[in-house]
């Protein structure tokens, strides 16, 4: 059997999300940005076949609460993947670092604890403009990317299990 050349893999193609169930947890802090990211994620999931009735959308106060919000969804719903959406903007104090550390480690832990994709849809920026640029502005919408990542990870799990 001929070995498939790695360059033949179509990295741009996205599997169908028709049979998949998703959770989206959105931080209320910087909602002008996180709301746009969540909308991008929702639109992209639906564009790739997910049914709106198979998407559970919940809010938490801030980015720091995202891992626990995600854990609630993993425990109490039947979703295949959970997208965590937040935006932390650098300020004058070290709060930024603590929130970023907490949400990053928390998300990593959830992925491995539940054997389920928890997607890191968190912007960590120096200022508001950098966040706006990535929430539907000149650099696209990172919510779209988070949704595609969720679909690809669920498809990979379904293929292997
Ligand atoms: C307190 C705080 C600060 C200063 N900045 C942000 C931020 O930029 N983005 C964000 O999502 N949340 C922020 N928070 C709130 C924390 O995430 C958290 O909700 C509180 O510390 C309570 O646990």
From TrEMBL:
The active site is at residue 95. Pfam families: DMRL_synthase. It catalyses: (2S)-2-hydroxy-3-oxobutyl phosphate + 5-amino-6-(D-ribitylamino)uracil = 6,7-dimethyl-8-(1-D-ribityl)lumazine + phosphate + 2 H2O + H(+). The keyword Transferase applies. (2S)-2-hydroxy-3-oxobutyl phosphate binds at residues 92-93, 134. 5-amino-6-(D-ribitylamino)uracil binds at residues 29, 63-65, 87-89, 120. GO terms for cellular component: cytosol; riboflavin synthase complex. InterPro entries: LS, LS/RS, LS/RS_sf. The keyword Electron transport does not apply. Its EC number is 2.5.1.78. GO terms for molecular function: 6,7-dimethyl-8-ribityllumazine synthase activity. Pathway: Cofactor biosynthesis; riboflavin biosynthesis; riboflavin from 2-hydroxy-3-oxobutyl phosphate and 5-amino-6-(D-ribitylamino)uracil: step 1/2. Keywords: Riboflavin biosynthesis, Transferase. One of its GO terms (biological process) is riboflavin biosynthetic process. Coiled coil: none annotated. Belongs to the DMRL synthase family. Catalyzes the formation of 6,7-dimethyl-8-ribityllumazine by condensation of 5-amino-6-(D-ribitylamino)uracil with 3,4-dihydroxy-2-butanone 4-phosphate. This is the penultimate step in the biosynthesis of riboflavin. This is 6,7-dimethyl-8-ribityllumazine synthase. It comes from Mangrovibacterium marinum. The lineage of its organism: Bacteria, Pseudomonadati, Bacteroidota, Bacteroidia, Marinilabiliales.
